[in-house]
Design a protein that fits this description.
There is one protein chain. This protein is mainly β and 487 residues long. The protein folds into 2 domains: 56 residues, no CATH class; 425 residues, no CATH class. The protein is 1% helix and 56% strand. The strands form 9 sheets. Strands 23, 24, 25, 26, 27, 28, 29 and 30 form an 8-stranded antiparallel β-sheet that branches. Strands 1, 4, 6, 8, 9, 11 and 40 form a 7-stranded mixed β-sheet that branches. A hairpin with a 6-residue loop joins strand 12 and strand 13. The longest helix has 4 residues. The chain is globular.
Length: 487
């Protein structure tokens, strides 16, 4: 190697949406080589658009679990980068692609090379799906999976946002009952094996021995873990998945058949990390709503729960002082008369999600339910794709923080795009009718906002129902130049 200096292009670890997502996003970076007597200057760190991004979808959630009955649903996955103008600073007309691929084989199953035009595919095998964006179609990448089954007790709808992988995932969902089954689907999108531990909190404390076993996840594959085997008969489980040696994506799939009556199915996705100030968006109007709180600490938590509804904030007397025992979970009934968010303030860090249910009013009253986790405020761009839901009622629920918030909402699909600016009053929720749109994009203008999309409808007179939280898409990364000095 000569003594002259040069520039070498390398990949870098990217800091995206204030969270480290190793292997999920990438930007170009530079290493400057200089001789020992040189004082080569380096550019300062900068925030740049990502040029590679990957999201992970669970695939057929109820297939492939050892010892559990398979239930095959119709699974559709869609992934897209937003239309031009949604991502600030993104050049119009740049080249790139969005690609869907399957599990260990990395087999490509769909591809798109146009912004706003989704890559879509149906999935029938028990494999994870990776949605990858490159070039100009990496910033703002969003992917959504729709699972649907009809015609018998296994019926239901699960609208699941595909996620950036993480080494630390909290999942809130599940319950007791002989015919209620929960599966934790852990996907490893990396090229190296990852080990995970699964810790479970319950009504009476931590489940003994649950986190003592390390579970290997081979590269580019997934593992379906029966929560019933780890925590049998637990009425209020909250699951903590911790990965070593890499990052994973995890969802909790919850199905309930009460006797001979199908009560529904849904996926619970990653909840916000334990915090003393949480907001659960996407609590749509439903006859029954429960808020599940988990206290992972060693001290009892005293929490206050408020309804952030369409008419503003409401403080029910019974939710003014809620005690959550240390290392335990608690289900709190909530009377939500309109679409709302739930604001939770506590003296100890908590994890939270809301469960709501819709049931038929006649016959054996079959129905469906949804889990809505607490989420961070949207900082850049968030969105959802809604494939195959043309006959459903779709609503965007926006919940503001302590100040008035304004957001830009773009509804797309069928070659058309509608853009509007929505104002949300402080600590309240505003509902936007999605109509026939198959894509929803949300960009904060000022203030803080959290968002979710609810989907409701009927199948032969029986409700189907699901809620998808909206979280930050990969948009920008911190590019850190590094200088290597040589003699």
């Amino acid at each position: 190697m000569s003594n002259t200096s040069g520039i070498i292009r390398v990949g870098s670890v990217a800091l995206v949406a204030a969270a480290l997502a190793v292997g999920a996003t990438r930007v170009g970076a530079s290493v400057e080589l200089a001789s020992a007597d040189q004082r080569a200057g380096l550019p300062e760190s900068s925030s740049v658009l990502v040029d590679q991004a990957a999201l992970v979808c669970p695939g057929q959630q109820r297939l492939g679990a050892v010892g559990l009955r398979d239930v095959s649903g119709t699974v559709s996955v869609a992934a897209a980068a937003p239309d031009a103008g949604v991502v600030a600073g993104a050049p119009a007309g740049g080249s790139g692609s969005v690609r869907l691929s399957l599990g260990t084989s990395s087999t490509g199953i769909a591809q798109s090379s146009s912004a706003g035009s989704p890559a879509t595919a149906d999935v029938s095998t028990p494999e994870m799906v990776v949605a990858a964006g490159s070039g100009a179609l990496a910033p703002g990448l969003v992917a959504t999976q729709v699972w649907r089954h009809s015609g018998d007790d296994d019926r239901g709808l699960a609208l699941t946002p595909c996620q950036l992988p993480s080494s630390d995932v909290w999942l809130v969902g599940g319950g007791a009952g002989a015919s209620r089954t929960e599966r934790v689907i852990v996907s490893n999108p990396g090229a190296n094996a990852v080990s995970v531990t699964v810790d479970v909190l319950g009504r009476s404390g931590r489940i003994a021995g649950a986190a003592d076993r390390s579970i290997p996840i081979p590269p580019l594959s997934r593992q379906v873990i029966s929560l019933d085997a780890i925590a049998p008969d637990e009425a209020g489980p909250v699951v903590h998945v911790v990965a070593a040696g890499g990052v994973v994506s995890a969802v909790l799939d919850d199905q309930w058949i009460s006797g001979a009556t199908g009560r529904g199915i849904d996926d619970s996705t990653r909840a916000a990390a334990p915090a003393t100030d949480l907001v659960v968006p996407g609590v749509d109007t439903a006859p029954q709503v429960l808020l599940r709180l988990a206290n992972p600490g060693d001290t009892e938590a005293l929490a206050q729960v408020r309804l952030l509804g369409t008419k503003g904030v409401e403080q029910p007397a019974q939710l003014r002082a809620v005690r959550v025992p240390a290392g335990s979970t608690l289900d709190v009934p909530v009377a939500a008369s309109s679409a709302s968010g739930l604001g939770i303030r506590s003296d100890q860090p908590l994890v939270a999600a809301a469960w709501s249910e819709r049931r038929a009013t006649t016959g054996d009253r079959m129905g469906d339910f949804a889990w809505a986790p607490a989420t961070p405020a949207i900082r850049g761009v968030a969105g959802a794709l809604l494939p195959g839901l043309q006959t459903a009622t779709k609503r965007l629920l926006l919940t503001a923080g302590s100040t008035e918030s304004r957001v830009s909402v773009r509804l797309g699909g069928a070659g058309a795009s509608k853009v509007s600016t929505v104002t949300v009053a402080p600590e309240s929720t505003t509902v936007v009718d999605v109509g026939s749109a198959t894509a929803v994009w949300v960009v904060p203008v000022d203030g803080t906002v959290r968002a979710a999309v609810s989907v409701t409808g009927q199948d032969a007179g029986v409700p189907f129902y699901s809620v998808a939280p909206l979280v930050d898409a990969p948009v920008r990364a911190l590019s850190v130049p590094v200088r290597q000095v040589r003699n």
